[in-house]
Each structure stands twice: as C-alpha cells, then as structure tokens.
Amino acid sequence: MFHVKLPGQDAMARGADEKLVSRRIKLPKRVVEHPLRQVAKRLLMALFVLFLTVFIVWLDRDGYHDNANETVDLLDCFYYATVTLSTTGYGDIVPHSDSARLINIMLITPLRVLFLIILVGTTLEVLTERTREEWRLKRWRKNLREHTVVVGFGTKGRSALMTLLATGLSKEQVVVVDPSAKVIDMANSEGLTGVVGDATRSDVLLRAELQKARQIVIATQRDDTAVLVTLTARQMNRGAKIVAAVREEENAQLLRQSGADAVITSASAAGRLLGLSVLSPSAGTVMEDLIQQGSGLDLIERPVRKSEVGKSVRDTDDLVVNVLRGHRLLPYDDPHASPLQLTDRLITIVRAMPPTTTRTTLGPPE
C-alpha cells in the first residue's frame, strides 16, 4: 500500500471562500468596453435628456399651468420633466398655451421616447448578453471534441500549456480548471476557456467536458490532489492521455497506478538539470533548449515514414534518439531498434522553425 507524501500547501486548495464562487464555466470575454463604463455612459445620457427637458420647459414656463399655485418655478420644471419622461403624468402641471403644447409634441415627446429607449435598452442588453452567453456556452459544448484539459494553472500548468501551444495547439481546444476565480479570469484574458472549481470533483471535470478530452495535463501543487484528480479523470475517460506532475519521486508510482500515462517528478527533474549544469553548463543549456518548444532544437515524437520501413535507425533523415515499439522504448543504438517497422514511432531532435516556416530536421552525425 502506498502513502502519499504531502509536500505543502496546494494551489488547488487555496481560497476556501472561492469554492463557493461556483464550479462554473467561464468563456473568454468579448466585451470591448467595460460594463461599468457602458452603464455610466447611459446614465449620463439619461441625465442629459432630463436636464434638456427641464431647460425647454423653463424657457416656456409661462405656457404651463400648475393646479396648486398656477405658477411654474424651477422645481416645478424638474417635477414636470421627471413625471413626463417616466410616463407617469399626474396631470397637476399641464401645458395650456399653443406654444407649450407644440413644444410637447415636437420636442418633449421625442425626448420621452429617447429616455425610455435608454432605460429599456440597458435592461434588454443585459438580457441579450445573458442569452448570447448561454448560446455561446451551448455551441462550445457541442463543438468541443478531442481537446486538452489543464488542471492547475500555476507555473507548471502554464509552462506545459505554452509548450503545447508552441507545437500548434489552438487555444480554442484548451480548457483550464482551477479553484481560483482570479486565475480563471487571467486565463480568460489570454483567450482560454476556464472552469472554476475543485478538480477532484467529477461534476467540475464534467463541466470541462473531460470525458471528451484527448489529453489531460495535471499540474497541481499537492501530490495527493494529483492522485485524486488522476483517479477521477481516468474513471471518466479511459482513452485520454494523462500526464501528471508530482513533487516527490516516491509518489510517482502511485500516480501511474492511478491511471497516469506519464509522470514527471518536478523537484527531481529540476535537481538533475541543476546537477548537469554544474558538470557542464553547455549541456544544461542544450537540455533546457530541448524541453522548450519553438526555439533552437525541439525534441519531438513522430511516426515512421513508409520510405523508412526496413531501414536502420542511422539511415533516417532525422537525428533519432529512441524508437518506441509498442510499449518498449529502445535506444537508437539498441540492436533490436533496427530495422524500423511501420508501427514504430521515433523520438527525434529537429530544428525549431517559426509556425509559418516548414520545419527541417537534423540529420545523423557523419
């Protein structure tokens, strides 16, 4: 029986108050202007219409009759403008001259309509925005297939996603799961869809459509959280590729037994890279370059081409490091690695190129 070592506080458990923020889906925002600024603009427009109406009534105040004292002062003008624009119309102040009635027809009535449009338009926009958001969410659920779920958007999760994006993964095919609403807002600002909630709960992973995902990256800060997420994810999706990160190497085997296809020990990997850099700084630089996709040299996995079937590993056009045959990973100098078979996959080193440029490969050394 394995025991999970707890290495410290977890980003997946941060903010207990944020757990109640709900396990909801947050699509990337498309609002051009801040909502508060939009409301402020409409409020200023409504006040402008109100003061314009008061000014018009004040200019022709002699044409109005007040049933209370027969005279119309500034306060009465504000009162009349308010009840008129709001279509209340108590009838205690009325236009009695021909000019006042004509002004009501030509100016006050259009201003009343404009005032109502401003008020009703704000409400309609809110309702429309909610409807549009629901429609976007339904369309997103319908079209989402073979996507990537990233659990935990800290340093490890963000770095893993940057690597995937550098290899051509579209942001529309990424869903980030994190319990922090602030983290998800940050992911939204970068064009990513996010789900707020605890990924150890199956209902949160269902909101991320994990059952339809092609690959899952688990980058939590606690090993026990990673184990629970891996168990839940594997139960929901038997065919997805699950890659998880752990802090302590002794927990790696438990992650594999939980259903992870690959487990990266972050602390040990960083330590080995540090040790290699001490022995040979240049070798450490090359290793860091290899694991950073999109610059310098890239380490990739590709299938064997038909023209390469039956050839030796050294006869390929690429610099082959390993041959993946079934579940066996054979070094390039293993006698069993050659000849190559059609079902093999090659781990090769290639020259990184910009997305618009065709990638070229490094040939084997002479």
Describe the structure.
The protein contains 10 helices and 13 strands. It has helices spanning about 35-60, 75-85, 100-145, 155-165, 180-190, 200-205, 225-235, 250-260, 265-280, 280-290; strands spanning about 25, 65, 95, 150, 175-180, 195, 215-220, 240-245, 260-265, 295-305, 320-325, 330, 345-350. The strands form 3 sheets. Strands 1-6-5-4-7-8-9 form a 7-stranded mixed β-sheet, with helices on both faces. Strand 11 (about 320-325) and strand 12 (about 330) form a beta hairpin. The radius of gyration is 33 Å and the shape is rod-shaped. The two termini are about 50 Å apart.
Structural topology:
Elements: E1 25-26, H1 35-59, E2 64-66, H2 74-85, E3 93-95, H3 98-143, E4 148-151, H4 155-166, E5 174-178, H5 181-189, E6 193-196, H6 202-207, E7 215-218, H7 223-236, E8 241-246, H8 252-258, E9 262-265, H9 266-279, H10 281-291, E10 297-303, E11 319-325, E12 328-331, E13 345-351
Parallel strand pairs: 4-5, 4-7, 5-6, 7-8, 8-9
Antiparallel strand pairs: 1-6, 2-3, 10-13, 11-12, 11-13
List keywords for this structure.
single chain; 366 residues; alpha/beta; four-stranded antiparallel sheet; 13 strands; 43% helix; rod-shaped; disordered C terminus
Low-confidence stretches: 5-23, 356-366
End-to-end distance: 51 Å
| Estimated share of beta-strand residues | 15-25%
Helix content: 40-55%
Strand arrangement in the largest pleated sheet: 1-6-5-4-7-8-9
Radius of gyration, taken over Cα atoms and rounded to an integer in Å: 33 Å
Largest sheet geometry: 7 strands, mixed
- Could you say which overall geometry the principal axes of the C-alpha atoms support? rod-shaped
Tally the helices: what do you get? 10
Q: Give the strand tally.
A: 13
Query: Please, what is the average pLDDT?
Result: 79
Protein structure class = alpha/beta
